[in-house]
Write a structure and sequence with these properties.
Length: 124
């Protein structure tokens, strides 16, 4: 499908480098994967408080994802395809411990923070 770009979009595209556009694209890819993984963790978690925390993180990451999508559209950068876990996916919650999920969440947050700091370094 052919997309017509406005002059404003073309001007904004000229203001962003390919490296900056790729960095935005890369962060958005991470957000898509992160939301799917968080949903999987939420389904497998045993502790109610952990489920509530994961749900709150999902809402926050989803807001950030939507903001990034808007920013990319504003600059005329094609967003990546969303990665999806099949809807019929089910895991064995008995083999996944809450401690494993919590450690995974902390590791993911640290990796994402590192990715964002790398992006800030690129654009400044």
């Amino acid at each position: 499908m052919l997309k017509l770009k406005s002059k404003r979009t073309e001007q904004k595209q000229a203001a962003i480098s390919a490296h900056e556009a790729f960095s935005l694209w890369d962060v958005l890819c991470y957000k898509y994967v992160n939301i799917e993984e968080l949903g999987m963790h939420e389904r497998l978690a045993h502790d109610i408080d952990l489920r509530l925390i994961i749900n709150r993180v999902i809402k926050t990451v989803t807001q950030h994802k939507e903001n990034l999508e808007k920013l990319m559209m504003e600059y005329g950068v094609q967003p990546p395809d969303q990665w999806r876990i099949p809807s019929d996916w089910s895991g064995n919650p008995e083999i996944v411990r809450d401690e494993f999920i919590a450690r995974g969440l902390l590791t993911d947050m640290g990796a994402h923070l590192e990715n964002l700091l790398k992006w800030v370094k690129i654009v400044t």
